[in-house]
Design brief:
The structure is a homodimer of 374-residue chains. Chain A folds into 2 domains: 141 residues, PurM-like, N-terminal domain (60s Ribosomal Protein L30, Chain: A, 2-Layer Sandwich), CATH 3.30.1330; 159 residues, PurM-like C-terminal domain (Phosphoribosyl-aminoimidazole Synthetase, Chain A, domain 2, Alpha-Beta Complex), CATH 3.90.650.10. Helices cover 27% and strands 21% of the residues of chain A. Chain A contains 8 helices and 14 strands. The first copy, chain A, is globular, with a radius of gyration of 20 Å. Chains A, B: It comes from Aquisphaera giovannonii. Chains A, B: One of its GO terms (biological process) is protein maturation.
């Protein structure tokens, strides 16, 4: 049991410039919303509670978005000779977004895309999905029908099959309409080996398009904000885009879909796991004007806002232009940009160079920015 | 959207002797607790909503507890020659049990055992698990620590590795402490092919031990019932027992772990999928005296109460004694018994021959017997 202390009462400490310092023990004796934010508290929960208890195999500690694993008969292994063999990729995600339906998607599309993307960014070809539903009694059957229909079309578009499922029903006030946990299985072809720990100084960092669209689209509905233009979630399956990138740049170091915690979350993971610095160019980061405006209105930083159809990729310097071209040749990568570089300065830190030339640390989100956006 | 009608107000219609009649369309315009019971309403939800919408691949419609699937490189398939090749097994389950801790287990052990068992009853060797947590804000961190520790010990005992996970946090009154969705991946060795549709007249039906222990143990805590003896959940991983049975009887037709919906649920599935009758001998069914007594007190039928560590198996008549012996040689099968036969009379129906020689239909549970026991 963790030790209660004064800080346990403080569940939203705001962004902390020292966010990347190691945290010796859980500061909370109860779960708070920030533990699900994808920022520092999520990181703390994983490192202090889940990993020590659960990681018997060592696979969890790799902290990838998916596990890649050997699979096969003793006499029928999938590996080639003298290179990394084909492996199984396995991932899971729970979806608790509110509202269930939002511009550009719904919880069903999100559940399919999120799991497909967690496989794809590991270099896997997504094959099979499972879905476990936790339904709240009194949910209109028509809402469930809409969600399930949109899961099916998302599966068809991504080329995956939903092959197994489960349904539980909880009483009113014990859920929130629909929660969905999806898991996915994919095949990582022989020879592919991506890792968040593989970045090297000089590597280029790319994103496939504008940041923050999903989080702000959901938040706008929830807060009843009205914007002049139609802001829509970017929820999309990235497996077509990742395959195109990997064909063009087989030496890609790693990929991430910057969901909860936003681009900041993915880059801080990268800096920590690879023991490198990240130098980000503010002027190069694609952000829609309406997202920027909404962020100002809501007091949010777009680097922390979730995306559900954007790819972050790290490639060797000499592959940067080819990677950019490959991304831009795909409909989901039209607005791709090189947004930064991996450095050997400031290891473990993400540093943003602002439009006016200033430098600031972009730490992991310390508390809770946008709850229940995925 | 389903058509609202008068019956939508009735969410617990009780056991219906006509339970096995086909139901043309959903009778509910809102989700009710019974849709999660594992009985007729769950069946209806699956057949009328999930399958038509989601089953693009045809795998869901097999209605097994797990999907068994081809997996491998084009140039490195797992199959042998001229026989059923090795396949991947994939399954998922959501766990919403209340209370989180109960005699003989907790939600963490249950989540591991349930998923391991759904793989094992398909003839798979369970390998990898995923876990997605939906935590309610204010959950004591110590409760989460206990649950996670017991997941780890359950994984170690079952010989599986938990390799990937996710955590979401929802606000108070949007959850119930901890919900867990686990998924599992296993390997079905070449040559094995079990199916709920494979039973033939004359086959023997076995159960590995006493029925109803889990459901009554949970219910007893929830209702504050006091029993003279210690009634404990039977939550256990069945993969050791299933391997022992399959070694002794490779011709085993199918296996099930009779969880929600109890033995009645599994046998009705069998009768329907195989197009056979099931003749059950009441006097042969092992039930603890204290479970029988509690069922009488609570007005429950032990055939409908959930088990979390019991195996139901169907084997050819000539293998029945060998199967019984194999089960009894395993610690989890000490109280195994042959409880009935597959017949070609009464196709689609489960008929119980009572101790005094009467015959009655044992239909699928129509409404809700024990909510949130798993």
């Amino acid at each position: 049991m963790s030790t209660p202390n004064e800080e346990s009462k403080d569940d939203g400490p705001g962004i902390d410039a020292m966010g990347s310092c190691p945290v010796p023990q859980s500061r909370y004796d109860r779960v708070v919303l920030g533990h699900g934010s994808g920022g520092q508290l999520t990181n703390e929960l994983i490192r202090l509670l889940f990993l020590p208890a659960l990681d018997g195999s060592g696979v969890l500690s790799r902290l990838e978005d998916q596990a890649t694993l050997p699979f096969g008969d003793a006499d029928g292994a999938l590996g080639g000779e003298g290179r990394v063999g084909a492996r199984l990729a396995f991932t899971t995600d729970a979806f608790v977004v509110q509202p269930l339906f939002f511009p550009g998607g719904d919880i069903g599309r999100l559940a399919v895309h999120g799991t497909v993307n967690d496989l794809a960014v590991g270099g896997a070809r997504p094959l099979y999905l499972s879905a476990a539903f936790i339904l709240e009694a009194e949910l209109p059957m028509g809402d469930l029908e809409r969600v399930v229909a949109s899961m099916r079309s998302a599966c068809d578009e991504a080329g995956v099959a939903l092959v197994t499922g489960d349904t539980k029903v909880v009483g009113r006030g014990r859920g929130d309409g629909i929660y969905i946990a999806t898991s996915g299985v994919g095949l990582v072809p022989a020879g592919r080996s991506l890792s968040i720990g593989a970045a090297r100084a000089g590597d280029a960092i790319l994103v496939s398009g504008t940041l923050g669209d999903h989080g702000i689209a959901v938040m706008a509905v929830r807060e009843g904000l009205e914007f002049e233009t139609d802001l829509r979630s970017d929820s999309a399956a990235l497996n077509g885009l990742t395959e195109r990138l990997l064909e063009a740049c087989p030496g890609t170091r790693c990929m991430r879909d910057p969901t909860r915690g936003g681009l900041s979350g993915s880059l801080n993971e990268l800096a920590e796991a690879s023991g490198v610095g990240v130098a980000l160019e503010e002027s190069a980061i694609p952000i829609r004007d309406e997202v920027r405006a909404a962020c100002e209105m809501l007091g949010l930083d777009p680097l922390y806002v979730a995306n559900e159809g954007k790819l972050m990729a790290v490639v060797p310097a000499e592959d940067a232009d080819r990677a950019l071209e490959a991304m831009r040749s795909h409909p989901l990568g039209r607005d791709a940009a090189i947004v930064g570089r991996v450095t050997d300065e400031d290891p473990g830190l993400v540093i943003l160079r602002s439009r006016i030339g200033g430098r600031r640390v972009v730490p992991l989100l310390a508390g809770e920015q946008l709850p229940r956006i995925c």
